[in-house]
Amino acid sequence: MEKVLQPFFTIFDENRNAFTRYSSYEERKLSDMKGYFANEARRQQMEEQGNPIVYRVYKQDVPLKEGELLHCITMIEPGHVDGEFFMTKGHYHLNEDCAEIYYGQKGKGLLLMQKGDRTETIEMNPGTVAYIPAGWGHRTVNVSQHEPFVFFSVWPAQSGYNYQRALDEPFQKKAVVDGDSYKLV
Ligand code: S6P
Ligand code: ZN
C-alpha cells in the first residue's frame, strides 16, 4: 500500500530566522561560491580570512513527486565581496514547467530573474509576495549591509535544480553597494 504523507506544520521562529522544525539544513559559505562574485581574488581572500556563511536554507522534505509542494526558508547574511552583495547561487528549475513563490519576511532583498535576454528584478520587503513564472532563472540578494534578508519559498516537488545553466548563462545584473543603499550594474 502506498505510504500516506501526514499533514504537518511548522512555525517561523523570529529569533532564529528558521522553522521551529525542519527536515534538512544547508549552508553556503564563501568557499562554496568560487566564481560567483566578480572579484574572485577578494572572495578567496575572505575565504582564507574566516570563510563566512553567505546563506542558510531550512527545508521541509516531501516526496519529490508531482502534486506535492516543497517549502523552505532562506536567510542571506549581510555582507559583500568588494561591493557585490551576498547572494544565493541562483538556479533554473530542471523541470521548466515549474514556477515558484517567494514571500519576504525580514530585511531587504532583490529577486533577480532572467529568461534568455530578458531580465526582471523585484524588490523584496517584508510582506512582498513574488511570483517566479516557470522557466525563469532566479537568484536573491541581500541588499542590506546590516541585517539578514529572510524569505519563504514554495515550489512544486518535481522541479529539480539546474545550477549549471545559471553558470553557463550568468545573471546579467549585479547588486552592488551604493552608499548605504544599492544599485544594479
Ligand atoms: C528553490 C528555491 C529556494 C532556493 C534557496 C537557495 O527552488 O528557489 O529555496 O533554493 O533560496 O538558493 P540556491 O540558488 O542556492 O538554490
Ligand atoms: Zn527555485
Structure description:
It is a single chain. With 185 residues, this protein is mainly beta. It has a single domain, classed as Jelly Rolls (Sandwich). The protein contains two helices and 15 strands. It has helices at residues 40-48, 163-168, and strands spanning 12-13, 18-19, 24-29, 53-60, 69-76, 80-81, 84-85, 100-106, 109-115, 118-124, 129-132, 137-142, 149-156, 175-178, 181-184. It has a six-stranded antiparallel beta sheet with strand order 3-4-5-13-8-11, with no helix packed on it. The longest helix has 9 residues, at 40-48. The chain starts with 11 loop residues before the first strand and ends with a strand. The mean pLDDT is 97.
Outline of this structure?
By secondary structure, the protein is mainly β. Helices cover 8% and strands 42% of the residues. 31% of the residues are buried.
Question: Topology of this protein?
Answer:
Blueprint (H helix, E strand, L loop, with lengths): L11 E2 L4 E2 L4 E6 L10 H9 L4 E8 L8 E8 L3 E2 L2 E2 L14 E7 L2 E7 L2 E7 L4 E4 L4 E6 L6 E8 L6 H6 L6 E4 L2 E4 L1
Antiparallel strand pairs: 1-2, 3-4, 4-5, 5-13, 6-7, 8-11, 8-13, 9-10, 9-12, 14-15
The structure holds D-sorbitol-6-phosphate (S6P) and zinc ion.
